Amino acid sequence: MLNKFCKKPLWECSQTLSLVASGAKKADLVILGAKLVNVCTHEILENTDVAVAQGRIACVGNCQSCIGENTLVIHANGKYLAPAFMDGHIHVESSMLSVGEYAKAVIPCGTSAIFMDPHEICNVLGLDGVKYMLEDAKHTSLKAMLTTPSCVPAVPGFEDTGATVGPKEVAETMTWEECVGLGEMMNFPGILNADEHTHAIVGETLKAGKIVTGHYSLPETAQGLNAYIASGVRCCHESTRAEDALAKMRLGMYAMLREGSAWHDLKEVAKVITQNTIDSRFACLISDDTHPDTLQNKGHLNYIVKRAIEEGIDPVTAIQMVTINVAQCFQLDHDLGSVTPSKCADMVLIDDLENCNVTEVFIDGELVAQNGKMLKTFAPYDYPAKAKNSVHLDLLTPENFRIPATGASVKIRVMEIIPARVGTFERFETMPVKDGALHADVERDVLKVAVFERHRNTGTVGYGFVKGFGIKKGAMAQTVAHDAHNLLVVGTNDEDMALASNTLIACGGGMVAVADGKILSLVPLPIAGLISDRPLEETSEKVQNLEKAWKEMGCTLPSPFMTMALIPLACLPELRLTNRGLVDCRTFQFTNLIVE
Amino acid sequence: MLNKFCKKPLWECSQTLSLVASGAKKADLVILGAKLVNVCTHEILENTDVAVAQGRIACVGNCQSCIGENTLVIHANGKYLAPAFMDGHIHVESSMLSVGEYAKAVIPCGTSAIFMDPHEICNVLGLDGVKYMLEDAKHTSLKAMLTTPSCVPAVPGFEDTGATVGPKEVAETMTWEECVGLGEMMNFPGILNADEHTHAIVGETLKAGKIVTGHYSLPETAQGLNAYIASGVRCCHESTRAEDALAKMRLGMYAMLREGSAWHDLKEVAKVITQNTIDSRFACLISDDTHPDTLQNKGHLNYIVKRAIEEGIDPVTAIQMVTINVAQCFQLDHDLGSVTPSKCADMVLIDDLENCNVTEVFIDGELVAQNGKMLKTFAPYDYPAKAKNSVHLDLLTPENFRIPATGASVKIRVMEIIPARVGTFERFETMPVKDGALHADVERDVLKVAVFERHRNTGTVGYGFVKGFGIKKGAMAQTVAHDAHNLLVVGTNDEDMALASNTLIACGGGMVAVADGKILSLVPLPIAGLISDRPLEETSEKVQNLEKAWKEMGCTLPSPFMTMALIPLACLPELRLTNRGLVDCRTFQFTNLIVE
Fold it and tell me: How far apart are CA B102 and CA B113, in angstroms?
């Protein structure tokens, strides 16, 4: 596959590179005396130099003769030199940061490239949203490669999104130079059942010679997994057990082992490497979803490599899993993923290999970050008005939250969340009817939920009840509400629910906590209702404040806004609420709130 | 990269494959109870089934439910099941067989795919010759992928060929669906010196997103090798020492370890794997040049895998080196190189792993060979008249071999061949002048040589003398004369030299030995003067007869016609003869026969 993520295509600079390697021309940059982490042969090679010209590596070995008077010479002083890291599967939107701010956060961690699946913004703004993020990325040094969102909407027929993606849209994006493949194909039932539309989405990617990334979260690794892989899906990041990852690797699928902010898979899945003596070329390390505080306090792939080493994976193997293996997965190893001649000079220096402590980061031969700080500045990208005006809803009143009912009491379905898990249980509660309507019951921890379609102002709204958050007062609202990202409101009373909603409608989306008619905490996410237009530190602080507000209101869950955001995700069991109503996710059928 | 070498593109059959994997549709073929050689994880997995539909693998594991009433069921009975073998670098012309006959020879050995560089025929017939071979290949099950000849002529300015290949021709072939890359870039001086034309040939390949294969035969593995790889060359089969192969792998170059008929590199280069504890993903096993008797008596990649195992390489590693590693080198691993769902069902059954004894061969899911015999028959391809009429020379007379000289004696330059080596030495001899001309001297083993341009009947001819063959009578002629393949004649007297020449002119080329006015042995190679139109057995027998004739005439070298064929190859040291005259290959200048 061609790769446009380089300073110059190789054919435009190969003559220069050959001349620099042989010493006839001088390099732009020479790094002297490093311990090379050779990801091709799985070795550490002492005292190795690297010469760079035109953003690419010209020579690896002894590069004294490549040094001229205009050559920048950096003495590695025995630090480890490795290829810069690549994240094979990431949703930037999870960081709540623009791509520009995200790049500033991850580049100093050693990340030069991400394979991003912007399916959150795509649900809101369609391919326009994807284009905005690509444009944002172009203002940075980060190589943000697109995998086109494959499942927009995530659960067709059960929710309303701002856009849909079908084979036609996928085919269009495959002509984009930033596009290297298809984003995670979450619709594995569609694949397994040979659904025409789903296979066509995969097919348009294959026709373009690009890579299909996957999402197979079932514990079944026999015929179902075979049926899924047989369609052409090449990788999957959804293994939570070592045996799942092993089954995938044996079937020629790249197992992308995840250590995200919320999904700590590595402790278990690292065993696929540490407890087997297998070839590890089909294993990668990825982050999937990373929150701002994780980026700020732990890092990105540097942290995940460190975690892999803690779990017993050999350091060179761990680095292979974020470099050459990722490049081979995406068939971009001719340009990326190793410190070898002709490749893009994307490299890191590391002073402590066990802790993967990255001290210098080079992208296209340029020293862009040092000691955890960006050296290079990026011109900010201003998202267009369409992106910042994505909450299409009239202001709400408490009346909009009224759930009418008759009789003295009714039995209703309630979604019960499970702490630190993505699933919910379907429960039943008998609720009193007051003033001809149903109300939250703080004593029994039964809160009211509403989901308002917010993309086209269609007026559709779903109502339900949820257990498990432990909130004693007030309400929360957020436009981060997977995957359709409609306006999701949870609360103890209709007045606060209306206030929370209107606060977000006014600011263009985000996350908010209110109580007793007052705003306790607000995270404005004006870009598509998903992304902040502020720096990492500020966004991270606001998110932490929101978490504090939840605590004050009685919730003891970690990152409860994450759990809340999954309430509408109708592909997860058991009971969910979308803007169209309650969905039984075991039978994939709408169901009634009031049972009897 | 897209791959057209499959029964159906994946996107046309992915629905069927998914349904077969899940048991909803039935497979065309199921192999039961094999020991799977898993090249992805480097494991042998007991009791594994494989289900195939539409020529591709649908399921690997337990495939009982994929069996229907029309499913062909084969019981592996505990045999090993591996991906079929792929030869990453091969010149079919060396076998003197048409591609059809070559396919019949190698498929029963377990070969499903070759990456062929038809630079011999291209020197004679240009891209038309390449097209003929591709057309021939299409009549067979063998996946004959083209790497476009990169160096035609091999040594520009020093010889006349039937065609030239430049960047324009390379660009044209990159649009051909059979083309997966560029053939061995032998002109490493052109790369190292940043020659525009040479880099453009590479560049046109890179622009097309295809693979540049290499040829770097220097023992220098520092700046020169870096300069070579920096141009974008991805693999090289010219390592004869383990340290050369290691240097290449460390620089991200695929080291293609060779065991050809004449080049027995493996004993030495296998040590790169056996004497290091490195990741072997950048190593492949290839044949380069295989003669008919090797194919007949030893085999193809099955023999080379066996040899690798004999040298101490782990059997699964050796099989990776002819399957997944080759597929990854050419970025075709999404379609080829592993027994995993979605891939082409190119597979072998092996009953004895150490000896790599292949008993069944499947290509695109079809059982095409069994117990060393082809089961499938191929419609023969008839090469067009242009291919069979490539010796454009008028009949010669003894007078055409006369080398005039004056005086009583002269000192001349003589090429001395080195037994079992490709080089020659420059020697000097003082020769008597008789009848105003120079003659061969059998006593001193100094034979006359002439090279006649035979592509355009330009009348150019080069004369010289050679030492080392030990021939006591008669003459030999051949149109296999690297790389320009002009008419090359060696002999003791002008009459026999004319007879040998005219014999080949009459039959369209080949190899011949004559003595005392009689033809002792003739190998007709009517296709381009390089390739037989007869079956392997017949061709092999004729070549053996020719070797016998050489022996009868006094030559004790093994395969002396091979050594003879290199006399015109002006890129090898020290002294060579082309149709334009004697070339000093140390200075790359023409030189005189008569010194004083």
Answer: 12
Residues in chain A within 8 Å Cβ distance of B206? 9-11, 14
Radius of gyration for chain B, computed over Cα atoms and rounded to the nearest angstrom: 25
Of the partner residues B19, B20, B192, the one whose CB lies closest to the CB of residue A18: B192
3-class secondary structure, B131: helix
- Interatomic CA distance for residues A215 and A198, integer angstroms: 13
Nearest beta carbon to residue A199 from set B14, B193, B234: B14
Task: Tell if the CB–CB gap between A281 and B281 is shorter than 8 Å.
Answer: yes
Q: Left, alpha or beta for B297 (phi > 0: left; psi -120 to 50: alpha)? A: alpha
Q: Which residues, in sequence order, are CB contacts of A403 under 8 Å at separation 6+?
A: A437, A438, A448, A463, A593
Is the four-CA dihedral A416, A409, A492, A399 of positive or negative sign?
A: positive
φ/ψ region of B72 (left if φ > 0, alpha if ψ in -120 to 50, else beta) reads beta
Strands B143-148 and B179-185: parallel
| Spatial distance between the Cα atoms of A150 and A198, rounded to a whole number of angstroms | 9
How many helices and strands, by DSSP H and E, does chain B display? 18, 30
pLDDT digits (tens, 9 = 90+) for B310-333: 999 999 999 999 999 999 999 999
Helix (H, G, I), strand (E, B) or coil at B67: coil
**Beta strand pairing call for A581-584 and B475-478:** unpaired
Q: For residue B437, how many C-alpha atoms fall within 13 Å in the half-sphere facing its CB?
A: 14
Residue A233 predicted with pLDDT over 90: yes
Mention every residue, 6+ apart, whose C-beta is less than 8 A from residue B263.
B240, B288, B289
Mean pLDDT, residues B105-127: 98
Three-state SS across A211-274? EEEECCCCCCCCHHHHHHHHCCEEEECCCCCHHHHHHHHHCCCEEEEEECCCCECHHHHCHHHH
Query: For B565-582, what is the mean pLDDT?
Result: 94
Instruction: Characterise B504 by phi-psi region: left (phi > 0), alpha (psi -120 to 50), beta (else).
Output: alpha
Q: Which among B209, B231, B249 has CB closest to A17? A: B231
Label the pairing between strands B254-258 and B283-286: parallel
Burial tier of A470 (Cβ tally within 10 Å: 0-12, 13-18, 19+): middle
What are the DSSP calls for A505-564, one per residue?
A: HHHTSEEEEEETTEEEEEEE-TBTTTB-SS-HHHHHHHHHHHHHHHHHTT--SSSHHHHH
CA separation for the pair B482, B358 (Å, rounded): 34
d(CA B285, CA B308): 8
Instruction: State how far the Cα of B536 lies from the Cα of A76, in Å rounded to an integer.
Output: 59
Angle, helices B196-207/B167-174, rounded to nearest 10 degrees: 10
For residue B346, give how far its alpha carbon lies from the nearest alpha carbon of chain A (Å): 15
Please state the ipTM of this predicted complex: 0.96
Strand-strand pairing, A510-515 and A475-478: antiparallel
pLDDT over threshold 90, residue B556? no
- The answer to whether A203 faces chain B, any CB pair under 8 Å, is yes
d(CA A247, CA B61): 10
Return the HEC string of A432-496.
Answer: ECECCEECCECCCCEEEEEEECCCCCCCCEEEEEEECCCCCCCEEEECCCCCCCCEEEEECCHHH
Give the span between the Cα atoms of B336 and A79, in whole angstroms: 39
Residue closest to A390 by CA, chosen among A562, A151, A97, A161? A161
Q: How many residues does chain A have?
A: 596
**Mean pLDDT across chain A, nearest whole number?**
96
- Is B561 touching A (CB cutoff 8 A)? no
Nearest in space to B150 (alpha carbons), one of B132, B174, B167, B134? B167
Judge whether residue A3 has pLDDT over 80: no
Q: Which of residues 52-91 of A touch B (CB under 8 A)?
A: 56-62, 65
Residues B462, B453: Cα–Cα separation, whole Å:
9
